Every structure is written in structure tokens, then in C-alpha cells.
Amino acid sequence: MSLTVADAVDYKGSPADKSKTGGWVPATLILGIEIVERLSTMGIAVNLVTYLGGTMHLASSNSANIVTDFMGTSFLLCLLGGFLADSFLGRYKTIALFALIQTMGTGMLTVATSLPQLRPSPCHRHDVNCQPANGFQMGILYLALYLIALGTGGLKSSVSGFGTDQFDEKDDKEKAQMAYFFNRFFFFISLGTLTAVTVLVYIQDEVGRIWAYGVCSVSMFIAIITFLLGTKRYRYKKSAGSPIVHIFQVIVAAIRKRKMDLPYDAAMLYESTSTPEAMTIQHTQEFRILDKAAIVTEGDFEQHASCSAPNPWKLSSVTKVEEVKMMARLLPIWATTIIFWTTYAQMITFSVEQASTMERTIGNFQIPAGSLTVFFVAAILITLALYDRIIMPLWKKWKGKPGFTNLQRIAIGLVLSVIGMAAAALAEQKRLTVAKSVGRNTSTLPISVFLLIPQFFLVGAGEAFIYTGQLDFFITQSPKGMKTMSTGLFLTTLSLGFFISSFLVSVINETTKSNATAQGWLADNINYGRLDFFYWLLAALGVINFAIYLNCATWYKPRKPKSAIPMETLHNGYGAEDKC
């Protein structure tokens, strides 16, 4: 067995020694920075809606949209982070840089929430004379939030990929460890979320937001120092360049040759002789329009000092074309998982708003509204533990496979989210009945907040399945050189889910107002609204989406790169010398 990792180097650029680099120790240091990122981002997000409404005096729908836009932007910026990691910085530098940016953002948020000049005068937001925050005050808040979003985007695009880099896929022992890394990864970041929705939210409500956000800044700074201490232990994998550029090269080459006919024999398509045999991918019949990028024509090669090489914007190898096809095959699954995260968005916005109107006391202790998401996180942890310790061993014994496939886990997550929205609608109907009987302006309704537990638990259990399923699917089913981009692609489902939530809230808010006095489904005071109708709408959309997903999952055929023999010489004479 080799003592070095073939495709990885150490911090000096030498082949990575297995005994001195990689494994669970450096992977744990990488997990540590992700735990703190979750602590900061979720600690801010789950309780932000109460700050926007109670302190900044914004309407419920506006507050919800600010939270979902913040979260959506965080995950959308993962594409930027992935591009920088692949093209310029590498995963290690990307993590360090964007962790520092997030530290700056949380520090600025600490200042923004502590200075009286940066928030409006105290009042009850439903009073006629209560003034919301002005443009300057909201501008400072936005600047802090979107610095945090930028930091989150850069971090999340590289953390999971850099973690898997610490394990050698060609080593059976390390490959088995990497298989468990995905579940461990999500389990530990869920611990960060759990700390955020309990300890951090309590500090925000009972001690002060300045202290809570200060904890976020200090924790991230410590995490950065810890991360840097592992520099000598990490394995670094060289980037093959931006996969986005490679994708565009294939598309441009295919468009240039769109009027040409494909050869009758796929063996006549171009394959680079410089591509290692183990890295080549066999030709497939899907998306044949892209195969035209591999047709060799006059002028496709450029002459260099002692050799000729193909112009990548005019000619792509079969392997490059097949890599783009692999990414294209991911898109239907990608599109049908977005609606789950639209459902998820309600757990940190309107569900928290519901909780703020309900009885939350246990003895002399009052549970912060934002801390109700503890049941959401608990569901994730319990589900992962049961799956890891009970379901996987039983499934392996029964079916001979170590647990559900990634597509099966995604399907389970989608089903649970639909049931969760139905439970949320029923709970809201009960809450509104109580509000109507005792008076809609009652600040605390005589109904227990624990009525909301089923919706948190069902959607939380759904996230445990769908997050691990998506992460596994997008990393294992993508080409080797595009794993960072595929992670970013996965995280855009979260981003689009939040943005769709904002879009739906805006549309529903406008269309359900019958006149100037009617408040619609999503009223500023939710006791006057019909939030249950909104939840039923999301449940219906979830059912339709699940039906589409089943068709996409049936169509999808899992593929992994397979070895193929490169063509040494093509019939037209090109390709014999393409290695400079």
C-alpha cells in the first residue's frame, strides 16, 4: 500500500504522507470552523425576525422576507466562494479568508444592535404612531448581515470538500471513513445550530444581543486560529481550474459546431492522449448535442513551440463533454429539492412569529420564541442518531446495503416536509380559533407553544434525510474536478428555497388583500391573518413537487467515471500530438 496520497500534497507541496497528514484529526479541525459558522449564522437567523419586528418595528411579512433574503444570499454566495476556491485561492485559503469576513460581519452586527442611534425609539409596533427604522439604520443593519452572508457563502462552498480531501478514496480504510464523514459532518454542525437556538437565543433575549453577537465574533476568531494550527496536517488537492470555465468551453465548442453531423462511430470523437486512462469517461448517448464539441475540424489545434494542442473553446475531449453531461443530469434532482427549503424557511420566520404569541412559560422560566427551533434541531440529531445506529445496520443486514440511497433519503425528506406543513396548518387553525375567542389583540394567547412541536419535528427530521442525501448525491455523482462547484450547486437549492419563500410571501401578501383595510393571509398581526392557508398552499406545492421528483429520480441513472482507452490517433490525423 502506498505511503503517499497520489492526488494530494502537503503544505510544502510535496506528496502527502499518509502517516503525517489527513484523517480524522484535521477533518475535525475543519468541522470546528463549520460548527462556529452554524452557531453564528443560525443564532442570528432564528431570532432575527423578533428583532426586526420588536425593535426595528417592521411588519411581519417584511421581517420574514429580510430573514429569508439574508439566508438565501448566504447560500447563493457559495457559488462565488466555490469559483474563487477552484480558480484562484484553493479551499484552504478560501476558508481562512471568508471566516475572517464573517468575523467582521458579526462584529459590526454587535455594534449595530448596541448603539441607540442605530435603532428607532421604543414603542409597540402595532401602535398607529410607532415609527419603523429609517433608511440609515436599516442600511447599517443590512451591511452587517450581508458581510456575514458573504463569509458564510465562502466558507460553506469549501468546508465539506476540504473535509473529504483529508481521506484517500483509493485506500479502503480511509474510503470507509469518508463514507461516515457526511453524517458526522451534518451531526456536528447540527450541534452548532442546537447551541445557537438555545444558549445564544437565550443570551439575546435575556442578557442582550450585544453579548450574543460578541460571542459569535470571538468564537469565530478562535476557530480561525485553531484551523490555522492544523496547516501542517492538512492534505491539499490541486485545482484543475474553474469547472464553470470548462463547462462554458464545452457549450461554446458545441454551439460553434451545431450545424455539423455527428460521426456514426463515437470512437471518431476526440479524446485527449494526455488524459490518464483511469480519468477518462466512456461516451454516453444522452445530451448528444454536446458531443459536437468533440468533433475534430480544421483549425481546432494551435501550434506551440514543439507541439500542438487543442483550443479548448473550439474542441473538447469526450471526457470533458461527459463531465458536463454528468452535471446536466444532476439538474432535475437539483430543481425538485428547492421546494423543501421553501418549507424550511417557515421554521425560522412565521413559526417563530407564531411562538411569540403563545404561552411559553415553564414554571418561572419563559422560553424565548426563537428557541422553539430547538425541537427542530433535536429532530435532526435524533434522526441522524437513529439512522446511523439502527436503520443503517438493519438495512445492511436485510438488503445488503449500508442504508438508504441518496435519492431515497431525499424522497423521505420531501415527504416529511409535506406532512410537516399539514401539521403546521392544523396547529395554526387551532391557534387562530383561540385568538378569535379571547380577542385578537391579546399579546399572549392561552394556548401552549408546544402545539408547534410536530411541525418543527417533522421538518427537522426531513432536513436530516434531505441534507445528507443531497450532499452525498451532489458530491459522489459529480465529476471529480467539479466537486466544489457541485457543493455550491447543492447549496443554491437552499438559496432559491429562501428566495422563493420571499417571493411567495410578497405575492400572497398582495393578492389576498381585498381592499385597503383587509390585511390578507399574512397580516402584520398574525392573529388577524390566515397563515394556515399559506401553510396549506406550501403542502399542496410539496405534493406536486414530490410527484415530479419521483419521475426525475426514476429517470436518473447513477453514474461514476469509468476507465476508457484514449484514442491515440484519429482518422483525420488530429490528436496524435496534443501534449505540450
UniProtKB/TrEMBL annotation:
<feature type="transmembrane region" description="Helical">
    <location>
        <begin position="488"/>
        <end position="508"/>
    </location>
</feature>
<feature type="transmembrane region" description="Helical">
    <location>
        <begin position="70"/>
        <end position="89"/>
    </location>
</feature>
<keyword id="KW-0472">Membrane</keyword>
<dbReference type="GO" id="GO:0016020">
    <property type="term" value="C:membrane"/>
</dbReference>
<dbReference type="GO" id="GO:0022857">
    <property type="term" value="F:transmembrane transporter activity"/>
</dbReference>
<feature type="transmembrane region" description="Helical">
    <location>
        <begin position="407"/>
        <end position="427"/>
    </location>
</feature>
<feature type="transmembrane region" description="Helical">
    <location>
        <begin position="135"/>
        <end position="155"/>
    </location>
</feature>
<feature type="transmembrane region" description="Helical">
    <location>
        <begin position="210"/>
        <end position="229"/>
    </location>
</feature>
<feature type="transmembrane region" description="Helical">
    <location>
        <begin position="96"/>
        <end position="115"/>
    </location>
</feature>
<comment type="similarity">
    <text>Belongs to the major facilitator superfamily. Phosphate:H(+) symporter (TC 2.A.1.9) family.</text>
</comment>
<feature type="transmembrane region" description="Helical">
    <location>
        <begin position="185"/>
        <end position="204"/>
    </location>
</feature>
<feature type="transmembrane region" description="Helical">
    <location>
        <begin position="447"/>
        <end position="467"/>
    </location>
</feature>
<feature type="transmembrane region" description="Helical">
    <location>
        <begin position="367"/>
        <end position="387"/>
    </location>
</feature>
<keyword id="KW-0812">Transmembrane</keyword>
<feature type="transmembrane region" description="Helical">
    <location>
        <begin position="533"/>
        <end position="552"/>
    </location>
</feature>
<dbReference type="InterPro" id="IPR000109">
    <property type="entry name" value="POT_fam"/>
</dbReference>
<protein>
    <recommendedName>
        <fullName>Nitrate transporter</fullName>
    </recommendedName>
</protein>
<dbReference type="InterPro" id="IPR018456">
    <property type="entry name" value="PTR2_symporter_CS"/>
</dbReference>
<dbReference type="Pfam" id="PF00854">
    <property type="entry name" value="PTR2"/>
</dbReference>
<keyword id="KW-1133">Transmembrane helix</keyword>
<comment type="similarity">
    <text>Belongs to the major facilitator superfamily. Proton-dependent oligopeptide transporter (POT/PTR) (TC 2.A.17) family.</text>
</comment>
<dbReference type="GO" id="GO:0006857">
    <property type="term" value="P:oligopeptide transport"/>
</dbReference>
<feature type="transmembrane region" description="Helical">
    <location>
        <begin position="330"/>
        <end position="347"/>
    </location>
</feature>
<dbReference type="InterPro" id="IPR036259">
    <property type="entry name" value="MFS_trans_sf"/>
</dbReference>
